[in-house]
Specification:
Layout lengths: L17 H10 L9 E6 L5 E7 L5 E6 L9 H12 L3 E5 L20 H14 L4 E7 L1 H12 L6 E7 L5 H8 L5 H17 L19 H12 L5 H8 L12 E4 L14 H6 L3 E4 L19 H11 L12
Parallel strand pairs: 3-4, 3-5, 5-6, 6-7, 7-8
Antiparallel strand pairs: 1-2, 2-4
Length: about 325
C-alpha cells in the first residue's frame, strides 16, 4: 500500500478560524497573473466549452476544475496553475458551462455530476497534447466532479493521479449545512449569480420553469429542486444530490487520489469525511487537517504559495507509491 505524507496544514496562530480563512483568501490573496491561451471546443449538443492553456512543452499535463460559480480566474485555480507552471507542468484549466464570462448556448448549465463535460475536456487533451501523464486537480464542486469521474468511468492509463481540496462529497448534507444562518453570507453570494444566469438564459429555457419563484429562493436545495433538477434530467434536488455526490463513487477509484478536507470547513458535514473507506482503500488518500476552512490554505504572504499548492505538487511528483499507506485522522 502507498505511503501518504502527513504534512498537515498549520496556519498562523491568529488565523485558524475557518470563516476568516475563507475571507482572507478571497479578498486579500493576490496570486501571480498567468497568461492563458484560450481555446473553444464544441460539444456534440450544440454548445461549447472554453479552455485555458499554459504550455511549457511538457510531457506532464494537469487539468484543473474550479468550484461553484467559479472559473479559470478563481483564486485557487490561478494559484495552482502558477505553481504547476513554475514546476514545468503544462496546465489546462477549463470553464464549466455558463462560467468564464460567456454564457453557454443550450438550456443546460453545469452541475456537480456533469462528468460528460469533463470527459470531453480530457479526450480533447488526449488528441491535442502529447502528454505522457495527465493529472486532475479540483477544488470544491470541481473536486466532486473529479472524484465522481474517477469512480464511474474506465480510465486511460495516461491519467496518473488526482488531487482534490474542500470537496462536498455529500451534496445533500452540504446543501443543508449551507442553509444554516452561519453560512448566510455565502449562500447569498452564490444565489445572486445563479439567479442572474437563469434570467440571462430565460428566453431559451423551458416555459414551465417557475421563474416567478426565483426571487424568493433562499437555499441551494430550493434552487436545485426548481431549476437544476428539471434542467438536467433529475426528478428533484435529492435525486440530483444522490446521483451526483462523489461519496457514492469513491470505492471504485483506481488511481492514487488525494482528498483534503479541513475539519473547520463551514461548508462540510461529517459525511464529507470518508474516514472508514479511506482506511481500507488502496488508492484514496484522505487528509483532514484541523484548519484550512474552505479552500483557505493560505500562504505566509499575499503572493506566496499556498500549502494546498505545495501539497499538490508533492503528491503529484511522489515517485514511490508502493510502500505501506499510513493514515492519521
Amino acid at each position: 500500500m502507498p505511503l501518504i505524507d502527513q504534512s498537515f496544514y498549520n496556519p498562523p496562530h491568529y488565523l485558524k478560524n475557518g470563516h476568516l480563512q475563507i475571507f482572507i483568501n478571497a479578498l486579500l490573496r493576490k496570486p501571480e497573473i498567468v497568461e492563458y491561451q484560450r481555446e473553444r471546443i464544441n460539444t456534440d449538443d450544440g454548445d461549447f466549452l472554453d479552455l485555458d492553456w499554459l504550455r511549457n512543452d511538457s510531457s506532464h499535463l494537469a487539468i484543473l476544475c474550479h468550484g461553484l460559480e467559479g472559473d479559470t480566474k478563481s483564486i485557487s485555480i490561478l494559484g495552482i496553475a502558477g505553481a504547476l507552471q513554475k514546476r514545468g507542468w503544462d496546465v489546462l484549466a477549463w470553464n464549466f458551462r455558463s462560467c468564464g464570462g460567456v454564457m453557454n448556448q443550450t438550456p443546460r448549465f453545469y452541475h456537480g455530476g456533469a462528468t460528460d463535460d469533463l470527459e470531453r475536456v480530457i479526450q480533447h487533451a488526449f488528441l491535442s497534447h502529447p502528454a505522457q501523464t495527465i493529472a486532475l486537480v479540483g477544488f470544491s464542486l470541481g473536486g466532486n466532479l473529479i472524484l465522481k469521474y474517477l469512480g464511474e468511468r474506465v480510465r486511460d492509463p495516461r491519467i496518473s493521479r488526482a488531487v482534490t481540496f474542500s470537496v462536498p462529497v455529500d451534496l445533500s448534507a452540504s446543501s443543508h449545512r449551507m442553509a444554516l444562518s452561519e453560512n448566510r453570507i455565502y449562500m447569498r453570494h452564490f444565489l445572486k449569480t445563479m439567479r442572474e444566469k437563469i434570467l440571462k438564459k430565460r428566453s431559451i429555457l423551458p416555459d414551465h420553469l417557475p421563474f416567478d419563484r426565483l426571487p424568493n429562493i433562499k437555499t441551494f436545495h430550493e434552487f436545485d429542486d426548481l431549476f437544476t433538477a428539471p434542467l438536467h434530467g433529475f426528478q428533484n434536488a435529492e435525486d440530483y444530490y444522490h446521483q451526483a455526490s462523489a461519496k457514492n463513487y469513491l470505492k471504485e477509484i483506481k488511481i492514487p487520489t488525494l482528498l483534503v478536507n479541513a475539519r473547520n470547513d463551514p461548508f462540510l458535514t461529517a459525511s464529507c469525511f470518508p474516514t472508514a473507506l479511506a482506511k481500507e482503500h488502496t488508492q484514496l488518500f484522505l487528509e483532514t487537517p484541523l484548519s484550512g476552512g474552505h479552500c483557505g490554505f493560505l500562504p505566509e504572504n499575499r503572493q506566496g504559495e499556498c500549502w494546498s499548492e505545495s501539497r499538490t505538487l508533492t503528491f503529484l511528483e511522489e515517485e514511490d507509491f508502493e510502500i505501506e499507506k499510513q493514515l492519521t485522522f
